[in-house]
Amino acid sequence: MSSTASEPASAPAPFTAADYRARLERAAASAAAAGLARLLVAPGPDLTYLTGYRPTADTERMTLLVVPADGDPLLVVPALEARGAESAPGAPALTAAPWTDADDPYALTASRLDAKGAFGISDNAWSLHLLALQRALPGTSYRGLSDALPMLRAVKDERELARVAAAGAAADAAYEEILKVRFAGRRESEIAADLAALLLAHGHSQVDFTVVGSGPNGADPHHEAGERVIERGDMVVLDFGGLKHGYGSDTTRTVHVGEPTAEERRVHDTVRAAQEAGFQAVRPGAACQDVDRAARAVIEDAGYGSYFIHRTGHGIGVTTHEPPYMIEGEERPVVPGMCFSVEPGIYLPGRFGVRIEDIVTATPSGGRRFNTTSRELAIVE
Q1: What is the DSSP code (8-state) at residue 325?
Q2: Mean pLDDT value of segment 304-333
Q3: I need a labelling partner for 35 at 20 to 30 A (CA). Which of 4, 10, 151, 317 fits?
Q4: Other Cβ atoms within 10 Å of 137 Cβ, number
Q5: Distance set, CA 111 to CA 129, 137, 230, 231 (Å)
Q6: For residues 164 and 179, what is the distance between their CA atoms, to the nearest angstrom?
Q7: Which pLDDT does position 116 carry in this prediction?
Q8: Burial class (CB in 10 A: 0-12, 13-18, 19+), 203
């Protein structure tokens, strides 16, 4: 089952202090269930998700959110950043602990924590800070948050889903407009710049990537748009996304400059069928790997199995890549509210590539697409 995503007429209402308090409470309960005494959250997507706070600069000065399994959250923050932290929407749910350059932030943090226990820590925390905390708290051990709490941000509520839908609709609008521009005779980098401008024009605050892989470059799934001049007869992979209202978009369509060959159509049709099979496998209770298996089986049956060289999907939310992952071996069940990509591909080295990607969410009755542009092979000039 699929339904069309539509963009809201106005920006969604911001998340409130109560929303962030509820997230912090869920994080604390998850920490306790995982046997962790504390969560230590460095600047990055987890901090933004839990508090709404984004530090103004990425510096060596330590900022650290401490979420105890039992007790009140604490935000250790440089004094010169304290005003920004205290004005964040989630600040009422926190106690701030500012420190100055004359202080030892690790000793300050250690004085507020139990000396022993297992702590979860952000994957992107600086080793500088982690090693200093280990010295200040020799009785502690640490686990990365993606290992300890991989589903911390995975299940979205209705307001989060509305933001993902709006981001998807904006990316779709950008795709519809890029089909109208001339491809032949222009550099990949020019098309990439057009896509970035279109994402911003349709309300994205941040562009994370604009992959434009023409001809043989399309056989590299993460090709960075370069100076190759696109020619008639090229297959062109377009993969682009970023953030709108704080939530991610990510979609891929493959177009052809002029009329394709029979082989190119056959490969594209195979990927389109695989993408549909992956989407149809989205249902509550299915394992994440079932989505990968369904898409991969179509490509393998067509004889291209060795040319599908990446996972079928990844989660999306406040970042464009996060858990869960649709990959063999991931037995975690799909649950309503999970948002992730379904993006099989075939990559023929030295020749061309094809990928088709939608962001979908699981609903109680199946899957819902957040990208609804045509998955047919589009012909461009």
Answers
A1: E
A2: 96
A3: 317
A4: 20
A5: 15, 9, 61, 64
A6: 23
A7: 76
A8: middle
Report whether 66 contacts 37 (CB < 8 A). no
The model's pLDDT over 62-97, given as tens digits with 9 standing for 90+, comes to 999 999 988 889 999 999 999 989 999 999 999 999
Q: Which residues pair with 11 in a beta bridge?
A: none
CA distance 209 to 372: 20
Separation between Cα atoms, residue 317 and residue 323, nearest integer Å: 9
What is the bridge-based pairing of β-strands 313-315 and 251-257? unpaired
Q: Under DSSP, is residue 252 helix (H, G, I), strand (E, B) or coil? A: strand
348 forms beta bridges with 352
Q: Looking at the predicted structure, is the pLDDT value of residue 8 above 50?
A: no
Q: Exposed, middle or buried: residue 163 (CB in 10 Å: 0-12, 13-18, 19+)?
A: buried
- Nearest residue to 41 via CA among 73, 14, 85: 73
d(CA 280, CA 377): 20
Question: What does the angle CA 314 – CA 318 – CA 321 come to, to the nearest 5 degrees?
Answer: 25
Question: Taking residues 40-58, what's their average pLDDT?
Answer: 91
Mean pLDDT, range 43-52, rounded to an integer: 94
For residue 38, the cross-strand partners are: 68, 119
**pLDDT-based confidence at 126, cuts 50/70/90?**
very high
How many Cα atoms are found within 13 Å in the side-chain-facing hemisphere of 144?
A: 8
- The predicted model gives 237-247 an average pLDDT of 97
